[in-house]
Design goal:
Structural class: alpha+beta
Number of strands: 20
Largest sheet: 9 strands, mixed
Helix content: 25-40%
Shape: globular
Strand content: 15-25%
Radius of gyration: 24 Å
Amino acid sequence: MSASSGPTVNVGGGGSGGVAGLRQGGAETGNPGRHTFSSHPGDVKINVEGAFIVEDNSQTRNEASDGVHYERKDIRLPHHTGVVSHVAVDIGGSLVKLVYFSHEPSSRAGGGRLNFINFETERIDLCLDFLQQLKQNYLKANGADPPQLCVMATGGGAYRYYDKIREVLGVDVLREDEMECLIIGLDFFITEIPQEVFTYSETEPMGFTEARPDIYPYLLVNIGSGVSMIKVSGPRQYQRVGGTSLGGGTFWGILSLLTGARTFDEMLAMAERGDNSGVDMLVGDIYGSDYGKIGLKSTTIASTYGKVFRMKRAAERHAEDGEGLTNGDPNPPNDFGTFKIEDMSRSLLYAISNNIGQIAYLQSEKHELRHIYFGGSFIRGHPQTMNTLSYAIKFWSRGEKQAYFLRHEGYLGAVGAFLKRQPQNWGRRNSFEAMSLARVASLRDDREGKPDSN
């Protein structure tokens, strides 16, 4: 393949060549005349020089529809002109995350972009329909006998749906390890994409950070249906050190029982409108004020849903006096008599986020890690979630540890699968993989003020 000059990332897969001319919605946008195929199928290098995130506010792109969510933050690759034949999917318990490359429709603009879209896993047929359309556009754009399209798949669903994907699409499916893909994806975002990683606080909602010379070690907290916590010591050197079953699936499942909301975004919107003090017992409810001696504000949650039993019992007594609904009323209003579904949503969001934040702190403390990256589709760029996680890390560590977030937090695994066969030297930073472990150790020793062993 004739590759563009500049930093490159390899995104190959066995038995595949290059694909281009694919765009969101399945419209063919490339110029086949300027595309070239790799002489070694599967060895496709992506030029990441000058990469940046572009906000897409066009009306031609619906942000969400039933079971499908289109992202509005593609990654522009202005200097990549070659063909890419791989798409990547990360199939989790709740969502299927899809990443694919497309060329810019204008020949003057040049280059292309990485596109991001997700589907509810229970609607995986929608994802397969979308992939089928991409495949048809690829065949149309690249001549009579193009190299075969390949699907790079990761996540548990890469095994569960392996046969179905092959049968429906008639393509090779290469399954990649989920944890390894998460790390490759995160390392790529940290080192290659400007204004991707940020810190969050109420005073500075999005404080962008530059990659440190020695990005290792760090803790990745990936929040999907469940939660995995992974200690990363170096390129592809990782260990799952813990996690919790209380994650995004818990939030989605409980609110599906309590409310009429159908989608995760609806539930987050309800939480945004809610006031958790309507159902949570706060420190102020117990002490009447702050508990300053141990550093607890009056608004600190003492007990999640702690007011519910007492207030529900009072409401039932009130109802028995003929002044309200009785237990078991067949048509309860949306506020459940005393409790608003928005308040319950916010309380549950806080409970899950606080729990994850505290466990993440404990794992970082145990493994002596200062930098904690939060990823996964549970976050969704939601301010309350990020603020809760960030506050938890800062509170428990007394400001010594830092929480980081990503603009593409839900696509670490999919991007990692997309980049799985990267070469040893690539990228704007001349490859963090080329940096010797001795160099990493030296930088770490300098930072900590340790004497050289020599």
